[in-house]
Write a structure and sequence with these properties.
Blueprint lengths: L5 E5 L3 H12 L3 E6 L6 H5 L8 E2 L3 H7 L8 H6 L2 H10 L4 E4 L3 E4 L4 H15 L2 E4 L3 E7 L2 E7 L4 E3 L2 E4 L14 H8 L4 E8 L2 E3 L11 E11 L2 E12 L3 E3 L1 H14 L10 E6 L6 H14 L18 H8 L12 H12 L1 E8 L7 E6 L4 E2 L4 E2 L5 E3 L13 H22 L9
Parallel strand pairs: 1-2, 1-10, 2-6, 10-21
Antiparallel strand pairs: 3-5, 4-5, 7-8, 8-9, 11-18, 12-15, 12-17, 13-14, 13-16, 14-15, 16-17, 19-20
């Protein structure tokens, strides 16, 4: 007669909460060790506190978004994909909505609702939580897991351990790279953690004057020298050091991949071009500017474009276009208008560097995928050791990709860990 598996989950974030519920629902005795005093700290700050927990797309689209290592996630995403995640949240009393870019949020716009639902699900499934407990070492017997040892030297026996500690971004939430050290102790290779989705510093200083200004429905194009690399449509934000926001974070990933490391990005190699009016071609935009100037003919140029742009942005665009803002609107020439239109369609900035890892939304790098079985998330080196979430060397763009991967790998790791003694198969997420 088989006995229940004893599972230790290290980390109570997105992956850890999902792993705990999955393992406990499958009959395992589960204890979650969390260094913080509460669960899901990073969930609470995701999506600006709204938690973009998945996206409305197919498994194949998600896999492609994680290129070049997306194929590793096929099993995990097939067992718990976006549709299943949405159904799970709905069953847990968290209705959802789909916004621009097929991003899925809780209808309440409260990340707390997502965190609370997942935490309570783990509790009701039978998982126990040990808060304020930081795991320092893995206990092993030969090439098999025997348990975990905390920073006080106390050992808790377990025949399966799931490392779900997150990456090294947002250290204030508890993601300080503990999982990497545990993986190395177990003989795993770890690719150097780098920022994957991170704000960008610019060479130009003028964005600082616009710090806090958010732009919606703009298109930003990334250039490597003068060669176009990628473009994104959506929302961005000016900051005291440069630019941020969803589309900038996605482009930062392309910058770091092209340079093969965020630390290798040379100032001046990459540039960004903002199209403030992507829905209008040059001729149409020129007519729009001309119409506004006629309507404001008695005002100066700097006071004539408020219907076209946020007020804070007007003097910056005029200055970058090389036009005197004190020029009366009725004296703006065709050449002036052409310069303004170019500035509106091609507001250029030069990339100095990505911001530090501590400010990244997601970490790139982590446990080498070739040493982990993608069908179970179990280590190929140490029996009973599993990995889930951001600690793995796979990362995707912004827009729900990375949380879905955390949920999916956590679910797969949880069921796999529970089945070590029970001999069960099948991978499902149960509310």
């Amino acid at each position: 007669m088989s006995t229940a598996s004893v599972v230790a989950v290290i980390g109570a974030g997105a992956a850890g909460l999902m792993a705990a519920a999955a393992a406990a629902s499958a009959g395992a005795n589960v204890t979650v060790y969390e260094r913080n005093r509460v669960a899901g700290q990073k969930i609470l700050v995701s999506g600006k506190g709204r938690c973009n927990f998945t996206r409305d797309c197919s498994v194949q689209e998600l896999v492609e978004g994680f290129a070049p290592r997306g194929a590793f996630l096929y099993s995990a995403l097939s067992s718990l994909g976006p549709a299943q995640m949405c159904s799970l949240m709905d069953n847990l009393g968290v209705p959802y909505k789909i916004e621009r870019g097929r991003r899925v949020f809780p209808a309440s716009d409260r990340a707390y609702d997502v965190r609370d639902a997942l935490y309570n699900r783990a509790l009701s499934s039978g998982a126990r939580f040990a808060f304020g407990r930081r795991i320092a070492r893995l206990a092993t017997e030969g090439e098999a897991i025997a348990g975990v040892i905390d920073t006080r030297g106390a050992q808790a026996d377990a025949n399966a351990v799931i490392i779900a500690t997150g990456g090294a971004s947002y250290p204030g939430t508890g993601s300080t790279g503990d999982g990497y050290a545990l993986a190395v102790q177990a003989g795993h290779g770890v690719h150097e953690p780098m920022p994957a989705l991170v704000p960008i510093e610019t060479v130009e200083t003028w964005p600082r004057a616009l710090a806090g200004l958010s732009l919606r429905n703009v298109e930003v194009t990334l250039f490597d020298a003068e060669q176009e690399m990628s473009r994104e449509f959506g929302e961005m934000l000016f900051t005291h050091f440069g630019v941020s926001g969803p589309i900038i974070l996605t482009l930062s990933r392309a910058v770091c991949q092209a340079a093969r490391s965020c630390r290798r990005v040379q100032p001046g190699r990459f540039s960004l071009s903002i199209d403030l009016k992507p829905a209008l071609d040059l001729a149409t935009l020129d007519r729009r500017v001309q119409r506004d100037l006629v309507a404001m003919s008695r005002k100066q140029l700097k006071n004539s474009l408020d219907l076209l742009l946020p007020r804070a942005l007007v003097p910056m665009v005029i200055g970058l276009a090389g036009v005197d803002g004190s020029t009366p609107a009725n004296q703006v020439t065709a050449a002036h208008r052409a310069a303004l239109v170019r500035a509106l369609k091609q507001l250029r900035m030069t990339v100095r560097r990505p911001r530090p890892l501590e400010e990244a939304i997601v970490t790139s790098g982590g446990v080498e995928l070739r040493q982990v079985d993608p069908r179970t998330m179990e280590s190929k080196l140490v029996s009973g050791l599993f990995f889930a979430g951001e600690v793995l060397d796979v990362d995707g763009p912004t827009g729900g990709y990375n949380l879905q991967a955390a949920f999916s790998t956590g679910n797969l790791a949880g069921v796999s860990a529970a089945g070590r003694r029970q001999g069960k198969s099948g991978i499902v997420a149960q509310a």
